[in-house]
């Protein structure tokens, strides 16, 4: 087992309004895939699910942005970082 | 909804005819494409008498289905020489459907080209009226006069001076729910085709339209109500910030078209962002969440007031903010709004003109960031100077005339606001779409999956792998939305939407539709368009992204466009 680390999740609109918080600090005991991290978030804060659509695999479509980089759902989150939770892009 | 209105400008007649059975389950873009293939010689002169302008609401038009008032406007394009469908919101699609029209077909040209005409449609039929009183007027003034004469609820479909002059970037405007010429079938010069027919406006009075018929009205209404609730919940960001929500995100991702597509991020992005626009609109008493027609529950358009609190433009959209903003290194929201106001009034495509301006800046006509210089170019367009006429031929011609080789266009049509190196799925659509670089043909937005199992996880936007298959799916999903008259942005082009559409079509028409049927509608729509282009001489060899995007790395993502050309060429094989 590695050391615990904290992922700070910045909530973009409308997630911030759904749970009345602008950010969450999620403590992790071990590295986790982005896909599992999303599941963990949604299980812990089910109101975040409200604006989200599910894909055909039953997974919610949502974006995680680390700095300027979109995370792949297969990517591992293995250390302390800040991640922005965003709706799938829409418009244009 | 089983009739066509055929307007023959040589005979000066407007005649209703029953549509053939083969068109019974075709609507919107599917119908415009099929009618063009059936009735127009693909090699014809786009502004000649053999081309036709087809205006068609979707199969769900006029119903209670949310966001179902989109209108398809099709013709052979004077900009690209290929098939074109430009898609527009506003109430006109809904009104035409309520009057029972599947399509308006405007054909031929008058022998006397001095006079202009208006097509007026109501529950009793249609008539062609000679009317030269609107010629030369700004769309705003013309719409105000038409409303004064025909009432506030009249549906208005109109061309501006750009259309009268038959510029290849001329739009067809639809007045929105407030009577403002805010919505445009913008791309591909459909306004020029309408102008070539000497039709200034089509007016639709649906005040005495009969009630829509449904095979199972209760089921249809229940489905629509639940779907509307889902759309409201899932599109809250669009409701708040509109399409401009994308400015900061695409800037961060590094695919925001900047300085004639030479960079993927802009130092002044925050100044033209959705967030800044929202604050400005609220502070000036505008409306950040405005519906382009009464049945829209997402309301992603806006009303933007000037510093004096008076209406300046509506709606200011992402593509305009970028192509008239960062693409020209302009970080002044009011300046972009003034340009948008001009384009709406003049009837010009903000996207094509924005890329033409960027090309002119690269060609040394004026420096990047020169707002006064852009306003001078606009004045030249109004005055019809040589430079003004060059710019209104679009980005490709502008580049050729000015000796610029870095032109952000495919098949003669400019790209949208996304740099192809930073959003590669959309770039595949730019390269392959029969209509030129058209993002609305299949926009691959991160987090928006396709319909097949292999496209459920969206690829990283800058990586080549998976983009071709994803783009195929998004093109098909978008095509069926266009055939239905659905706003693909507000409802999402997705498999869940296809499922809903199958249920709605079944309840509407009393025939069982499956999700496979709906997907097939998308495929058939596209293949019809590809076939038209093949016959016009625009083939798979034309499916490419210009070389400089392949050879030059985009800052800051450090990527080139690296998808194999063969994959682009073979895109529609075994579709």
Q: SSE layout and pairings?
A:
The complex is a heterodimer of chains A (92) and B (575).
Chain A: E1 5-11, H1 15-18, E2 23-28, E3 32-33, H2 34-44, E4 63-66, E5 69-70, E6 76-77, E7 81-86
Parallel strand pairs in A: 1-7
Antiparallel strand pairs in A: 1-2, 3-6, 4-5, 4-7
Chain B: E1 3-8, E2 13-18, H1 28-39, E3 52-57, E4 71-76, E5 83-88, H2 92-98, E6 101-107, E7 117-122, E8 125-130, H3 139-150, E9 155-158, H4 161-164, E10 172-174, E11 183-185, H5 190-196, E12 199-204, H6 217-234, H7 236-241, H8 246-253, H9 274-283, E13 287-290, E14 301-305, E15 311-313, H10 318-323, H11 333-346, H12 350-362, H13 371-383, H14 386-391, H15 395-402, E16 409-410, E17 413-414, H16 424-432, H17 467-484, H18 488-491, H19 495-509, H20 515-536, H21 547-551, H22 565-569
Parallel strand pairs in B: 1-6, 7-12
Antiparallel strand pairs in B: 1-2, 3-4, 3-6, 4-5, 7-8, 9-10, 9-12, 10-11, 13-14, 14-15, 16-17
Helix pairs in contact in B: 1-17, 1-20, 6-19, 11-13, 12-15, 16-17, 17-19, 17-20, 19-20
